[in-house]
Amino acid sequence: MVVNMTKKSRRKKFPLWQSIVLAICVPTFCISTFLFFNDFFQYRAEDHANIELSRKIREIRSDSKPAAEKVTDKFAEYEALWALNHDFAGWLFIEDTKIDYPVMHTPDDPEYYLHRAFDRSDASSGSLFADAAYSMDGDSLLIYGHHMKDNSMFGSLTDYQSYEFAREHPVIHFDTLTEERDYEVLAAFYWDPVPRQENALFHYYEYPELSSPEIFEEYIRQVKSYALYDTGVSTACGDKILTLSTCSYHTNNGRFVVVAVSH
Prior knowledge:
8-stranded mixed beta barrel, alpha+beta, 29% helix
């Protein structure tokens, strides 16, 4: 058998610069793809865990249970969750949204649940948690939550930028371990960490006590001046105020805030 040694190899050779680019891009693409799917499945797992908590609560509330089995003591409704984690302080629920979560409270470690799940495991989406400076039994409460792209946690809170959405979802339900309460949406607004013109910056997160008529009126005046629309809801000193806050990307370190009132 004769072998033709004169044939030139048909193997294509890339210029050096293309080889370098390929050597950089291929691993980068693989790493990016891995991180994307890793985050995707992590978020799904975290969301599933929260859905399971919501399901358990709905089962407890179910009207289909025999009268003898229905919960009559409000604390008993959440007793099982509190037994699992004493940081559990309440439950926040807005109908027709994904906001249906436990609220945690750790006065000695303000941001403990920023990236932790209900069971204290690491979680990128974190948990809803009340500001450490606020009392769960006070007349003012501030709750934080991450603005997740999959609408979990407070990802759907920014829907309140629309007056139509607020009109269709005017009530925010929040239960503590001892009390059930419905709040009416008073205002929704975008907040920037810079003063407006010559005015002092409105620190909406620094009002843990609103029993003073002067402080209450100042807070409500500021809230209404920032409001995106008029809900027509009125309030007076002595009402309970619930403030929900999440990140907003309209500006650096921006926030989106919803304020609700219970008479």
